[in-house]
Amino acid sequence: MRTVLKLGGSLLYDENGQVMIDRVREYAKVVKALLAKGHEFVIVVGGGKPARVFISAARELGASEAQCDWIGIKMARHNAELLCAALGDAAFPKIVETLDELEVAFQHGKVVLMGGLTPGQSTNAVAALAAESIDADILLNATNVDGVYDRDPKQPGAKMLKSVDIKELRSILSGSGTRAGEYKLFDPVAIKVVARSKIKAIIFNGNDPENLRRLIGKGEEIGSLVVYGSDE
Ligand code: UTP
Hints:
Blueprint: E1 2-7, H1 21-36, E2 40-45, H2 48-60, H3 65-87, H4 99-106, E3 112-114, H5 123-133, E4 138-143, E5 148-149, E6 160-161, E7 163-165, H6 166-172, H7 188-197, E8 201-205, H8 210-217, E9 224-227
Parallel strand pairs: 1-2, 1-4, 2-3, 4-8, 7-9
Antiparallel strand pairs: 5-6, 8-9
Helix pairs in contact: 1-3, 1-8, 2-3, 5-7
Bound molecules: uridine 5'-triphosphate (UTP).
């Protein structure tokens, strides 16, 4: 299976802002095992806590939103370097910075790693664009919640949706931020891209790297599947 995996930056850092080395190692192990079975991967890593720390400091110092976005873009690339290191020879050695580069890098048969691409979006948009570019079979969005909820998952009575129509997803996420560091799940660009190409997308809990094996290796149904109504 040709997969684009988006790893939320929050999955790689603990509450003290330290990199969870074992988590990165465990992801590399699962990905290598799946590669050995013939699966192909592009992995897009988010900015996580360090991106938010730098963005808020830069904003206070007067940086423009575009400058803040660039900080996030670079931080996400640094996070991708961590996974690249853990994957060793299995990874294409350079973090890919454009979609043009992605197409060439992907031909090498290695795991291709990406961070951010361009201001005005999040790494979820990067993952959606990457999935479209390489004609991926699936886009997996690993987050720190079990899937998409009908309201803020912290609110009482919030229900996880096993499948969510793209229109409903758009409306659930309509209150999300659009400033640097504040994008949630799918940002507007990501929504637009998955909708126009009807990309099979699953949002799942990435705190357990084994969930990746469950989804790809075993075909288990976990998380929330995005579905597309006939009028999309
Ligand atoms: P993300 O918001 O995607 O990563 O990128 P995150 O903070 O780790 O969020 P999750 O946990 O993955 O959902 C960090 C910031 O980098 C900028 C945005 O400001 C974004 O909030 N960015 C990222 C861009 O401007 N363009 C990109 O293509 C990617």
